[in-house]
């Protein structure tokens, strides 16, 4: 039995070899090879990682509770002009979804994160951006990892790592990343100032 293709590119069988058969097979194989290479190129992913450190005189336990465990309660109260509300879908543990709804007038309406790890004993927290204006069609994913470590003076060294994975060879817009980090640091500083002014909160 020999393979052949009709005018609709549907494979059929014949009882006798046809010279055109080999040409058709060759053309289809070359086309398939091109499509495979083109598809592989289009989904090429590139990961870029940024690491930042911040120091504070506030203890890791208090910062972790304010910024992570009870952020959905505290942050909308401290900066209502920026954050309207924070919702948690689930029990707050790994696999839960956290939705940050921004105030009216903000460039962003909301962002949605998936909590990947949360450990109050080691003060570690990791989460992935899964939906919202912060995830463009050029990004496959954005993963964040936070570690609060005790400093020599009893305060905190906050280590924050963010990994951006782009699709299709797109170049990461580092200026937008910088703006995002400045906003995150601004929120961090607001919470830190509140804890310093209220030493009994989360003590």
UniProtKB/TrEMBL annotation:
Cellular component GO terms, alphabetical: cytoplasm; nucleus
One Gene Ontology MF term: signaling receptor activity
Residue stretches spanning the membrane: none
A GO biological process held by the record: defense response
InterPro entries for this protein: Bet_v_I/MLP, Bet_v_I_allergen, Plant_def-hormone_signal, START-like_dom_sf
Pfam family, one: Bet_v_1
Residue ranges constituting the Bet v I/Major latex protein domain according to the UniProt record: 45-197
Stored PANTHER family: MAJOR ALLERGEN PRU AR 1-LIKE, OS08G0374000 PROTEIN-RELATED
UniProt record similarity statement: Belongs to the BetVI family.
Name the record gives this protein: Bet v I/Major latex protein domain-containing protein
């Amino acid at each position: 039995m020999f393979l052949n293709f009709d005018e609709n590119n549907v494979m059929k069988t014949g009882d006798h070899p046809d010279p055109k058969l080999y040409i058709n097979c060759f053309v289809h194989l070359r086309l398939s090879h091109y499509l495979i290479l083109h598809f592989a190129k289009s989904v090429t992913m590139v990961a870029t990682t940024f690491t930042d450190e911040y120091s504070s005189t506030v203890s890791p336990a208090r910062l972790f509770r304010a910024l992570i465990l009870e952020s959905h309660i505290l942050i909308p109260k401290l900066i209502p002009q920026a954050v309207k509300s924070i919702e948690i879908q689930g029990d707050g543990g790994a696999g839960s979804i956290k939705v940050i709804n921004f105030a009216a007038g903000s460039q962003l309406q909301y962002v949605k994160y998936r909590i990947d790890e949360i450990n109050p004993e080691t003060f570690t927290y990791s989460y992935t951006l899964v939906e919202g204006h912060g995830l463009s069609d050029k990004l496959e994913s954005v993963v964040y990892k936070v570690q609060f470590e005790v400093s020599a003076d009893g305060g905190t060294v906050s280590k924050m790592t963010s990994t951006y994975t782009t699709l299709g060879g797109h170049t990461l817009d580092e200026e937008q990343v910088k703006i995002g980090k400045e906003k995150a640091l601004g929120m961090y500083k607001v919470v830190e100032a509140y804890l310093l002014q209220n030493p009994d909160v989360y003590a």
